[in-house]
Amino acid sequence: MSTTKSSNITFHGANVTQAEREGILGQKGAVVWLTGLSASGKSTIARRAEQLLLARGVTVYVLDGDNVRFGLNKDLGFSPADRTENIRRIGEVAKLFAEACTITLTAFISPYRADRDAARAIMPAGTFVECLVEASVEVCEGRDPKGLYKKARAGQIPEFTGISAPYEAPAAPELVLRTADLTVDQAAEALIAHLIEKGFIAA
Amino acid sequence: MSTTKSSNITFHGANVTQAEREGILGQKGAVVWLTGLSASGKSTIARRAEQLLLARGVTVYVLDGDNVRFGLNKDLGFSPADRTENIRRIGEVAKLFAEACTITLTAFISPYRADRDAARAIMPAGTFVECLVEASVEVCEGRDPKGLYKKARAGQIPEFTGISAPYEAPAAPELVLRTADLTVDQAAEALIAHLIEKGFIAA
C-alpha cells in the first residue's frame, strides 16, 4: 500500500458545482410538474414536448406511469399512504434529474395539493414549474382513451379522480394548458416557451 | 370542446426512440455500478470521473449516499429488507437516468451479489458496467476517513461490511479498479476509457 496514493482516495475537493454543470451543458435543470385529470393530456403533451426539446438538443426526460409504476414504484398500491409515497418518490427522482441539469417532465394526476407542494418544497427556488393541464371532467370523459371513466362510472374503479375522488387544482400554477382549446403542438410549444422565458434553456 | 383538437390529445405516435435520443445527444446511457468496501474509493472515483466527463461535455450524474439516503430513500433503515430495497430503488433510478442517455455512476457498498444482479437484470443487455473498487479491509481501515472502521471495531456499528458483515465480491465485474495501486485520476481515467471502448461516449 502506498500511503500517498491511498490518501488521495479520500480527497473530496473536486466536486462539480451546479453553476459549472449548467455552464458546460448549456441548460439548467427544471421540474415541469404536469397535473390534471386522467385523459387531460399530461403524458401526450409531455411526450411531444420531449420530442421537440430533443430536436433542439436539450437533454430531457419524462417520468410517467409507464416508466415509474412498473419499476421504482412497483411495490406501491393505491391506498392513500401509497399514493402519497408514489408522488414523494417521483418528486425525489425528479429532483435528482434536475440536479443533473435535465429538463424533467412529470406526468401524473397528482390530485392532492399537499403532495405537489411537498415535491415543490424539496426543489431549489424557481426550478419547480407546476403546470395545470386543464380539461373538465366532461371533456376528459368524452376522450376516455383507456375506458377508465366508463369503468369508474360502473363502479369498477374505486376512488377515481374527478368521479369518486377529489381533484385539488393548483392555486397558483406557473403554467396552465387548457387542452380543449389547444392542439398537442400548441400545448407543447407553450411549455417550451415558458422554459425559454425562465432561462432554463436557450431560445 | 373541439372534437378534432381534443382527439389529438390521445395521439401517442410521437414517442422518441432510444436510438433517436442517442443520436441527438451523442452518447448512450450506461450504469457504472461501483461496488466495494467503505473507504475503498467509490464516491471519490465517481466524483472525479464525473468532473472529467463533464469537461468532455458528457451528461453524467452520480448517485451516492449523499443524494439518495437523505432524499428518495430517507424512509429506509439498515435492516436486511431495507438494505435490499435501498439497492433496488437505486437500480431503478439508475435505469431511468440511463434511458435519458445519461452516464450514471452509482457509488454504494452494495455488498450482496443478489442485489447487484437484480440491478443488472433490469437493464438492457450491455449497459450495466459492474465496477469493483478493490481494496483490502486493511487498506480501507488504514484510510478510515469517517472513523467508521474504528466505531465498527468498537462494536458501535452493527453489521459493518468487511468487519461484522460479509462483502460478496463480484464474480465477473466488467471493470476492476485496485485503489491501493492507482491515483484517483488513474482510476477515473480507467473508468472513462472503458466507457469509450464500449462506445457509450465518443473518444
CATH topology group of chain A: Rossmann fold
Mean pLDDT of chain A: 92
- Portion in beta strands of chain A: 5-15%
The number of distinct β-strands of chain A equals: 5
- Given as residue ranges, the uncertain stretches of chain A (5+ residues, pLDDT < 50) are 1-12
* Strand arrangement, major sheet of chain A: 2-3-1-4-5
* Helix/strand/pairing category of chain A: alpha/beta
What is the CATH class of chain A?
Alpha Beta
Straight-line N-to-C gap of chain A = 53 Å
Tally of DSSP helical segments of chain A: 9
Q: Overall 3D geometry of chain A?
A: globular
- Number of separate domains of chain A: 1
Specify the oligomeric state.
homodimer
Spell the H/E element sequence of chain A: HHEHEHHEHEHHEH
**Greatest contact between two chains:** A-B, 63 and 63 residues
Largest sheet of chain A: 5 strands, parallel
Helix-residue proportion of chain A: 40-55%
Rg calculated over all Cα atoms of chain A: 19 Å
The CATH superfamily of chain A is known as P-loop containing nucleotide triphosphate hydrolases
CATH-defined architecture of chain A: 3-Layer(aba) Sandwich
Explain the overall architecture.
The structure is a homodimer of 203-residue chains. The first copy, chain A, has 203 residues and is α/β, with parallel strands linked by helices. Chain A has one domain (19-197): P-loop containing nucleotide triphosphate hydrolases (Rossmann fold, 3-Layer(aba) Sandwich). In chain A, 43% of the residues lie in helices and 13% in strands. The first copy, chain A, is built from 9 helices and 5 strands. The first copy, chain A, has helices spanning 3-8, 18-25, 42-55, 65-68, 80-99, 113-121, 137-143, 148-153, 184-197; strands at 30-35, 60-64, 103-107, 128-134, 175-178. Chain A has a 5-stranded parallel β-sheet, with helices on both faces. The longest helix of chain A is centred in the middle third of the chain and has 20 residues, at 80-99. The model of chain A is unreliable at 1-12 (pLDDT under 50).
